[in-house]
Known about the structure:
Layout: H1 6-10, H2 14-19, H3 25-39, E1 46-50, H4 56-63, E2 67-72, H5 75-81, E3 89-93, E4 105-110, H6 121-134, E5 135-146, H7 148-153, E6 158-163, E7 166-174, E8 178-187, E9 190-199, H8 203-212, E10 215-221, E11 236-243
Parallel strand pairs: 1-2, 1-4, 2-3, 4-5
Antiparallel strand pairs: 5-11, 6-7, 7-8, 8-9, 10-11
Amino acid sequence: MNTKEWFASWFDTKFYHLLYRDRDDKEARKFIVNLLNHLKLPVNSHVLDLACGKGRHSITLNELGMDVLGVDLSEQSIAFAKKFENEKLHFRVQDMREPFDETAFDCVFNLFTSFGYFDQDEENQKVLNGISKMMKPGGIFLLDYLNTNTAVQHLIESENKNIDNVNFDIKRSFDGKFITKNIEVECSGKKHYFEEKVRGFRMKEIKEMLLKANLRIEECFGDFNLSAFEAETSPRLILVCKKDSVI
């Protein structure tokens, strides 16, 4: 793993967790409840939460009867999540590009735009190939991604936040390929510089990548309430995919 990659440094800092500490856990739980009601996964289904962060989605999945493994690259996030482990909820540090020994997941969740991090599309394809490899034939892959069209349309180019005397100066841009967030952090008189970057995939591109990984789109939603996807207005691109039984 190249430790110079932006996500390898930014996601494991105290500043990342401070900036995003007010994420809406109630909304996240409602989303998971909606998904499970819709997908009708049997109790004790073997589920992977890929790029799980501190485990908020994993914990809810487990509370709703799933046997869950949550993985993330951030050691700090996994250390926090491990406090919630039980017989059917486990966490570990893992690079999403590398398949694990487990190869029989009933369902894989990749939530909250935890995809498209890599400079080379081949690396993003490698993630999808690995997901497919770890799934049972007929298994479900759930991808919750930003809708690039609306994200670019409503891009806030400049923003400043002060949280607990830590100042965040944020600049956003889109170069036609990547949506980039440059973050200058000032804390105790010192400045730190970080970057977030995600590939601005459109529906057609993602569909082609999924098909290469033997994953077929079954349904497409545009928000956490599972409303129909509208390319120019929906805030999210949420795809329910199935692994074909025969390659």
